[in-house]
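Section 3.1: Structural characterization of target chains.
Under the original work plan, the team committed to producing a structural model for every single-chain target entering the pipeline before any wet-lab resources were allocated. The record below documents one such target. The sequence was received from the expression subgroup and is listed exactly as submitted; it comprises 166 residues.
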Amino acid sequence: MPVNAALGERPLDATGEWAQRPAVLPPEECPPRPKWRHVDGDWIHTRLEERVALPAAGGEHDPRVDGRSTLWVRVPEGIDMGPVALAILGDFVPGGIGAALGRDAGGNSLDNTIRIVRPVPTEWVLLDIRVHAIANGFAHGLVHQWAEDGTLLATASQSTIVRVRD
């Protein structure tokens, strides 16, 4: 699977941010995300702590209507929340496919592009997964990644082969 990355810095007196963080409860108030049934052994999802980010008051959304789902994810202690960890978390569009369809489904990545915005230290990362379209066996979407303090860390886009398991 090819992975592209946009990262680095250069001095420029122009900034802006237009992505909007979803209004969700903090991770400690959200339930754990069930582990995938078909996963055995040592795999990336067995090492991540994942919680289903529940909408806060006034922040409701329905994945089956808007293709959007949100997760809090914590990487194992001692792993830097830098570009490498953010690239791994950018591979979560397949995790939003099942929520969008309301079925036990996911996918295999065909491509993944990570765009690093501003890494800051954070224990939890909020993944705002947006599945834009599913057609002809393929899905396309993006993941905005937010620090607990609301900083936009990165955004990633992805195309996948859709796999339905039910």
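The first strand starts at residue 3 and ends at 6.
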